Amino acid sequence: MTADALIYHPTVSHYLRFVATTVGRDKLLRTLQYFSRFYAWYLFRSNSPPRLIAPFEAIKKQFALTRKALRLGKNVEHFKAAASAMDDTKSKDEFLRYCAVGRQLGYAVYLTLDMATYVDTVGIWKLESAKRLQKEAYRAWFVGLLFNAVAGCYTLWGLRQREEAVDKADGEGVVESKKIERERAATNLQLVSDLCDLTIPSSALGYANLDDGIVGLAGTVSSLIGVWGAWKKTA
């Protein structure tokens, strides 16, 4: 009876739906990858023996490679999203529309270049320009994240303007106020994720002098936010 209760529990069904998605598996692997990056740094700084550090270094490298494979072909999705955003003439805010185009193009270029470096990383075809392509990929990712972070700040400013115009003494005003609170919470969460992710390309490109501890922790936080978002979508 206990085994049946566990097997048929709604959470188990939810978990199966979650891991059945590529996004769900990617976010879980990403969380482990960046936590391992942080923990390997922590162990190194604690003067731990190499045999304790090695497993986390292996997780960091192998999960990063696995995630590269999972991302193959995903660039098309972002090119399509960029085209859709550009063609969205019904958008109420032109600034946010162009930010969406910039974000999607940045991600699309990043994934295209990242896909090109994959064949070099796994040894299928060695490219002399692999390091340069990876650097350009990080630059494209940085641009995409920056567009999204700017859009997030702009959205928060817009929400504040809307909130000031709401009459909370009115019934409709109360409903609108609650809607604004939900939108603000979602925007703040995405902004935190973007700012955490920005540490990764910033460090790789030398824009910021960040060690693996900071990058690993920031990546873990943004990954957990991604896990939560993917989990809710499969509810």
Helices, strands, pairings?
Blueprint: H1 2-7, H2 10-19, H3 22-45, H4 50-70, H5 75-87, H6 94-121, H7 130-164, H8 171-205, H9 212-233
Describe the protein's architecture and organization:
- It is a single chain.
- By secondary structure, the protein is mostly helical.
- The protein has nine helices and no strands.
- The longest helix is centred in the middle third of the chain and has 35 residues, at 130-164.
- The two termini are 25 Å apart.
Runs in which pLDDT lies below 50 for 5 or more consecutive residues are none
Percentage of residues in DSSP E strands? under 5%
Order of helices and strands: HHHHHHHHH
Euclidean distance between termini CA atoms: 25 Å
**What general form does the structure show?**
globular
Task: Give the fraction of residues assigned to helices.
Answer: over 70%
Per DSSP E runs of 2 or more residues, the count of β-strands stands at 0
Structural descriptors:
single chain, 9 helices, 0% strand
Give a brief rundown of this model:
By secondary structure, the protein is an all-alpha fold. The chain has helices at 2-7, 10-19, 22-45, 50-70, 75-87, 94-121, 130-164, 171-205, 212-233.
